[in-house]
Specification:
Layout: H1 5-27, H2 31-52, H3 62-69, H4 72-90, H5 96-120, H6 122-125, H7 143-164, H8 167-188, H9 195-204, H10 206-215, H11 220-243, H12 245-251, H13 256-260, H14 262-286, H15 291-313, H16 318-348
Amino acid sequence: MNVDFNLRAYISRRVLFASGLFAAAAAVPGRYAHATLAAFALVAIVVVGVESLRGERIAWGAWRDYVALTKPRIMSLLLVTGFCGMIAGARGWPGTATAIAAMVGLALACGGASALNHVLDRDIDLLMTRTRRRPLPAHQVDPERAVLFGLGLGVLSFVVMVYFVNLTAAFLTLLAIGFYVVIYTILLKRSTPQNIVIGGAAGALPPVIGWAAVTGNVGLPAVLLFLLVFYWTPPHFWALSLRIRKDYAAAGVPMLPVVKGIPETTRQIALYTVLMVAISLVLWAVARMGAIYLGAAIVLGAIFLWQAYGLWRRGASEEASTAGAIRLYKYSISYLSLLFLAVAIDALVLIPV
């Protein structure tokens, strides 16, 4: 893709200008001042996008690459937790308009943060079998386009949240984007085996955002929803990293299985699983939830504990631990989806214990 050097400089200056407007939108007090500056930032990014595509034709298949930049599978799970957190906060249906606006804003934020993550990780993605076919390492999307795309989605998510939801949800959304891109991707991922533990806070924010979207605040139940996802993330991600630990080693990413080995990783998975299940039961008591949630928390948690214990017990065997890790990884996705579905159903149909 040939782009004139002067045009590249022009685009870079405009991106910096748009980013400055976005930062100002986050700093200036007043709801409509926020939204107005964010809107100007969005317009600036659109202008840059038009200029960057000037004289070029984008093939229809390229749009699939841009969709891939948003990590749709990860986004879908985050939207489930955010939507169910919203129902829990409302103790019932939150209202169709609010639900749609919050989910659109959250989806845009997830997609924007994921696109920027793709840009920052494109060098190590090229070294890993699982990720080398992503749009950037496969040279299907130009990094500058991806940056522009990610920033545009992020700004638009902030505008949607401010105008159609509320300022608390908007700031939490902005915090999630910043935490995922800056704290996790830039500062932690390549420097510490605790990367996914601390960085997991970004993925734990959607249910809090959903709660704040309908209440305008962050209550104790929302904090427990956050902690539930926060402690779910290490067992989920470490189970995956056990399977692809050779990829991480080749890319120089210090994931726990690479740094501490299989036995220690399986032990940590078991410990975090105990904490996660304990928090799920504390949530039932604190949020005064009913029998539907309690039954789901007990049954789903027991299965998770059994699988995590089995993985720990077989941790010395590389072949057995890999097979168990694959099963646990797949189950962890079902666990979180079903547990949050139980949160929503329980809020809609409260059956006292």
